[in-house]
Amino acid sequence: MQIVIRPDRNTACATAASLIASQLNTKPASVLGLATGRTMESVYDALVDLHEAGAVGFSAATSFNLDEYLAIAPDDPRSYRSTMDRLLFDRNDIDLARTHVPHGSGPGSGGAAYEALIRDAGGIDLQLLGIGENGHIGFNEPLSSFASRTREVTLAPATRRQNAALFDGDEDAVPKRAITMGIATVLEARRILLVVTGRAKAGILARAVEGPVTAMIGATALHFHPDCLVVADEDAAGNLAEREYYDAMAAGSQEP
Amino acid sequence: MQLSGRIVLEDRICDGTIDFGETIAGIEAGAGAGEYRGERIILPGFIDIHVHGGDGGDTMDGVAGIDRLARYHLRHGTTTLLPTTMTRPWPEVMDALRAVAEVRSRGLEGGPDIAGAHLEGPFISPQRLGAQPPFAIEPSLPLVREALATEVVRVVTIAPELAGADAAMRLFAQSGVRVSAGHTRCSFEQAMQGFATVRDAGGIAGATHLFNAMGGVEGRAPGLVGAVLQDRDAHAELILDTRHVHPANFRIARDILGDRLLLITDAMRGAGLGDGESELGGRAVTIRDGIARLPDGALAGSLLTMDAALRHAVTASTGLAHASRLLSGNPARYLGLHDRGVLRAGMRADIVVLDAGLQVREVWVAGRQVA
C-alpha cells in the first residue's frame, strides 16, 4: 500500500482523476471499477474536465460500479445508476452499453451474473474506491467476509444515516438492502485506487491504514492487495501516525 | 538537465526521470517521480511534416514568415517542422524554397529545427486543388531539377496521374525526397503504379492529408485511400482537427496503417489568431468559430496545432504512447531523421512537457528550454 497526501480535496480528486486518465491513456480499452459518494463526485468532475480538455477518452472503456441499492428502480434519480449517468456517463463519450451497475431484479440481475460480466470483460484494471465512515468499501459492511463475492447485503444503520442526505435527510427512506461487489471481488482488480477526503474520514482512514486487519473494517482487506494506492487530502490524513514515512515514500515513488 | 514525470516511451509509459544535455543521457524509471503522479507528462517533441503557416506567418512570405510560423508551432510542442509551400506561380514557389533553405542553413535561434521543406504543389491536379489556388502545372523534369537544386525539399506532394509524374516521382525518390500522392484524382491502379515507381527508385511513398483532396473508397474503385490502406509500405498524413476527417476515418487509418500514419497540422497563416479575415495562397479566407474557409465555403487549411492533434487522438481512445508515435516517432522514421522522435538514450533532447490536461508546459530543443 502506498499513501499520497494532497493539500486539499480538489487537489486530491484531481490527482485521482489524472491517475484514471493515465490508466485510459495507457490502455484505452481499460475496464474501470467505479464507486459513488461525495468524494467521487469531485473525482468525476475533475475527470470530465480532463475529458473536455481533450486529455482522456472513454469510448473504448468498460465500467463496473461497486454497488447499488435494492428496491429502487435504476431510473429513480436516487439510484446509483442514475447518479453515475448524471455524474459521469452522460458527460463523456463512454458507450452506455459498456457501463454496468449491479442490480437485484430483472434480466442479468444478481451477484453471479455480475461476476460473470466482469470476468468476460477481462477483469477490472483499475478499481476506484471510497471508504465509509464505518470502514466499508462498496457496501461491504462490518463483518463482511474477506472472501465475499458480489451479493445482496443488509446496510448498517451508520451507512443509512450517512447516506440519508440523498434521500432528503430521511434516514428511513434509505433502502435497507443493497447489492455490492464482495471484498474478494474488489481484491481481484489489477490496481486499486482509494480516495479519501474530509475530516470526517480521518479516524477511519487511520484505522484502515495503520490499524490491525479486521473484518470489522472492510478497507483493512486492502493490505492483501499488491498494488493499492491511497490518495487522501490533509483533512482525511490528519490522524495518520506515520505521515513522515508516507511523504518520503511518495517523493521517491518507492513501494514499501 | 533532469526532468521528472510520466515519460512516454515508444511502447509504454513509465514514471521516472530523464537526464539530458543536447542529447538524452538516460532514462531512469521510478526515481523522484512520485510527486508528479501523471501531472507532468514528458513526450518527444512533435514533428510536423506539413505546415503552411501560423500566427500570421506563411511559408510563402519568405524568411520572416517562416520564422514566425515556426516559433508559433514551437510553443505548441513542434520541435521539428517542414515549412510547406503553396501552389503559386513557379518563381514564387522557388523563392519560398530558397527562403526555407536559408532559414535551415542559418538555424532559428531558440526555435524549432527546420528539417527541410514540403513542396505541396504546383504538381497537383487542377481538378483537386482543395484550397490551393489554380496554378497547378505538370511536373516537367527541368522544374523538378530546379527544385532539387535547392537541396531543401524533403517531401513532395504530387498527383500521380499527371503527364510526366512518373519520371518526376522517380527523380524525386532517387534524390531522397519522400513522394506523397495528393490533390489528386488518381485511380487505385494509378496510385499503386506510383507507389511502385517510388519504391523501385529506392524511395518511400505516402499520401498527403489522407481522405482530403482525393476520391473516396467505392465498391469497384478503391482509389488512393484504398491503395494506401492495403499497401504494406505507403505512409499517410492525416489532419486530425475533427473538421477535415471524421473520427471514424481516423480510427480506420490508425488501426490499419499502424506506424505508417503521421499526424500533421496543415495549419495556415491564421492559426493562433482567432476569428477574423486571413489569406491563403493569395485568396481571402474567413475564420469563424475556429474554422478557416474560402469564400466558396471550402476548408482553407486548418488552424490546428500538434498538441491539439495529440488531444484529439487521445480523446479518440488512442493510447498516449501510440498517439505520441503518430506525432513524433512515425514522422521521424518517415523522413529518415534517426536522431529524434523517440525518448531514448542517445537521441536529440527534443522534449515536450504537458500537464494532466495535455496542455504544453515546457518545450526543449536539443536540450535547451525554448518555451
UniProtKB/TrEMBL annotation, chain A:
An example Gene Ontology CC term for this record: cytoplasm
Which positions fall inside the Glucosamine/galactosamine-6-phosphate isomerase domain?
Answer: 12-213
Answer whether the UniProt record assigns the keyword Glycosyltransferase to this protein.
no
Please state the Enzyme Commission number of this protein. 3.5.99.6
Ranges in coiled-coil conformation = none
Q: Which domain of life is it from?
A: Bacteria
**Its GO biological process terms?**
carbohydrate metabolic process; glucosamine catabolic process; N-acetylglucosamine catabolic process; N-acetylneuraminate catabolic process
The record's annotation in InterPro entries points to: Glc/Gal-6P_isomerase, Glucosamine6P_isomerase, Glucosamine6P_isomerase_CS, NagB/RpiA_transferase-like
**Pfam family membership, one:** Glucosamine_iso
Give the Gene3D superfamilies listed for this entry: 3.40.50.1360
Swiss-Prot/TrEMBL keywords? Hydrolase
- Give the Gene Ontology MF terms in alphabetical order: glucosamine-6-phosphate deaminase activity; identical protein binding
The protein here is known as Glucosamine-6-phosphate deaminase
Originating species: Lichenicoccus roseus
TrEMBL record, chain B:
Which segments constitute the Amidohydrolase domain? 321-370
Q: How is the cofactor bound?
A: Binds 1 divalent metal cation per subunit.
Domain Amidohydrolase-related residues, every copy: 41-166
**GO BP of this protein:** N-acetylglucosamine catabolic process
Active site feature: D266
InterPro entries attached to this UniProt entry? Amidohydro-rel (IPR006680), Amidohydro_3 (IPR013108), GlcNAc_6-P_deAcase (IPR003764), Metal-dep_hydrolase_composite (IPR011059), Metal_Hydrolase (IPR032466)
- Write down the top EC class of this protein: hydrolase
Q: Which residues bind Zn(2+)?
A: E120, H183, H209
Q: Where does substrate bind?
A: A131, N212, A213, R220, H244, L299, A300, G301
Kindly indicate whether the keyword Iron belongs to this entry. Answer: no
Instruction: State a single Gene Ontology molecular function.
Output: N-acetylglucosamine-6-phosphate deacetylase activity
Tell me which stretches of the chain form a coiled coil.
none
Cofactor(s) recorded for this entry are: a divalent metal cation
Cite the entry's keywords alphabetically.
Carbohydrate metabolism, Hydrolase, Metal-binding
So which domain of life are we looking at?
Bacteria
The UniProt family comment states:
Belongs to the metallo-dependent hydrolases superfamily. NagA family.
Name listed for the protein in its UniProt record? N-acetylglucosamine-6-phosphate deacetylase
Q: What is the lineage of its organism?
A: Bacteria, Pseudomonadati, Pseudomonadota, Alphaproteobacteria, Acetobacterales
The gene it comes from is: nagA
